[in-house]
Design goal:
Blueprint: H1 10-18, E1 23-26, E2 35-41, E3 44-53, E4 56-65, H2 70-85, H3 90-104, H4 111-125, H5 131-150, H6 160-171, H7 181-200, H8 223-226, H9 237-249, H10 253-264, H11 268-272, E5 279-280, E6 285-288, E7 299-302, H12 305-312
Antiparallel strand pairs: 1-2, 2-3, 3-4, 5-6, 6-7
Helix pairs in contact: 4-5, 4-7, 5-6, 5-7, 6-7
Length: 318
C-alpha cells in the first residue's frame, strides 16, 4: 500500500507557498488522498489531485492557492474521489459538462447537434423513395452507438479514445456477442464526416480521430479480413437461357416483372415502380426521372422488341 501522507495544517500550507520549495507537496486529509499543493515559484501555487481512473493516471487541477483554501480543496478532492469510485472519469465529466454548458449558451454545437445538421444534408443528397429509411437508419445507429459516448461533447473535445470506446464493442466483441464490423465501419464513416463538418465550421482543429487510413487502420483489422464479403449465388451463363425459358412459361405478373428486370438490368424497386407516364412505346424508351433514382440522375432505358411485348401484354391499370 502507498504511504499515507501526513495531514498538513493551514499554517504549514501557507509556509510551503510563501517559502517556495518547487514541486508537489501532499497535504493529506481523510478521503483526500492524492491531494497536493503544486508550488511553481513564489506566490504561484495551485491544488492538484492525483488519481487513477481505470488504467489512466489523472492530474486534476482544483484551482490556485490561496483563492481555493485548504478546506475547500480537501472537500473537492473527497467529492472527486467518490466520482472515481463510481467509475466516473472527472476529466471526461468536466469536458462533457463544459460542452453541454457551451451548447446551452449557443456558443458552440455539441456533436449531436452537428450530427443533426449532417443528417439533414444527407436527406438532400440521397435520392429515390428510400431516402426516409436511409436517414432513419443513420439516425438510429448514431442514437444507439454514438450519442451515449460523445453526443454531449463538443467536436473539439473528441479524440481517439472516444472513437475506440464506440467501435471496440462492435469490432472486438466478447464471445457472447456477434461481430458487427460492417456496422462499425459505417458508424466510423459517419463520425468521420461529422467531424470533418466540424472542422469546416471551425469547431475543431487537428487530425480527424475517426479517419481510417494512417489512423484507425493501425488499431483495427480490416473489415475484409474479419468479415469477408459473401456474394449471393448467381446463375451460370449456360443456365440462364434455360431459366428464362422456364420463367416465360410462368403465367404471373411477378414472373413478367422479373424478366423485365433481368432484361433492363435495373434494380428490383425500379422495375416494380415503373410508370406508364415514363414509358414511350413509339420511341421504345423508358425514362426514369432523377428524383426516383439513387444517383439523382435521369436514366433512359432502351426498349427492344421483347420488352415492348412484355409491356403491351400488361394493361395500363396494372
Amino acid at each position: 500500500m502507498p504511504k499515507k501522507a501526513a495531514e498538513l495544517s493551514n499554517a504549514k500550507v501557507k509556509s510551503l507557498a510563501n517559502t517556495p520549495v518547487i514541486g508537489f507537496h501532499p497535504v493529506g486529509g481523510t478521503g483526500a488522498e492524492g491531494l497536493a499543493l503544486q508550488v511553481k515559484s513564489e506566490n504561484a501555487a495551485s491544488w492538484v489531485l492525483k488519481v487513477t481512473v481505470g488504467a489512466k493516471r489523472r492530474e486534476i487541477g482544483l484551482g490556485s492557492f490561496p483563492s481555493v483554501s485548504l478546506k475547500t480543496a480537501r472537500e473537492l478532492a473527497v467529492n472527486l474521489r467518490k466520482e472515481v469510485q463510481q467509475g466516473i472519469d472527472p476529466i471526461e465529466k468536466r469536458k462533457a459538462d463544459r460542452s453541454a454548458s457551451l451548447a446551452k449558451d449557443q456558443v458552440a454545437k455539441t456533436f449531436k447537434e452537428l450530427a443533426n445538421d449532417y443528417t439533414r444534408k444527407l436527406s438532400k443528397d440521397y435520392k429515390g423513395k428510400s431516402v426516409v429509411q436511409r436517414i432513419q437508419k443513420v439516425e438510429n445507429q448514431l442514437e444507439q452507438y454514438v450519442y451515449p459516448v460523445i453526443g454531449d461533447l463538443l467536436p473539439s473535445d473528441i479524440d481517439l479514445p472516444h472513437i475506440e470506446k464506440i467501435l471496440d464493442p462492435l469490432w472486438h466483441p466478447d464471445k457472447a456477442k456477434v461481430l458487427k464490423v460492417e456496422t462499425a465501419n459505417r458508424i466510423r464513416l459517419h463520425i468521420e464526416k461529422i467531424l470533418d463538418l466540424a472542422k469546416v465550421r471551425k469547431l475543431r482543429e487537428g487530425d480527424n480521430p475517426a479517419r481510417w487510413k494512417g489512423n484507425l487502420d493501425h488499431v483495427y483489422t480490416k473489415q475484409s479480413k474479419l468479415a469477408p464479403v459473401t456474394h449471393r449465388a448467381a446463375l451460370e451463363v449456360d443456365a440462364l437461357t434455360k431459366f428464362i425459358s422456364q420463367l416465360r412459361r410462368e403465367n404471373s405478373v411477378s414472373s413478367r416483372i422479373l424478366e423485365f428486370q433481368i432484361l433492363t438490368a435495373v434494380r428490383p424497386g425500379e422495375a416494380r415502380a415503373a410508370k406508364w407516364d415514363h414509358i414511350d412505346l413509339d420511341k421504345k424508351l423508358w425514362t426514369i426521372p432523377g428524383d426516383e433514382m439513387k444517383s439523382g440522375l435521369k436514366h433512359v432505358v432502351p426498349l427492344y422488341n421483347r420488352l415492348v411485348q412484355l409491356l403491351e401484354a400488361q394493361t395500363r391499370d396494372s
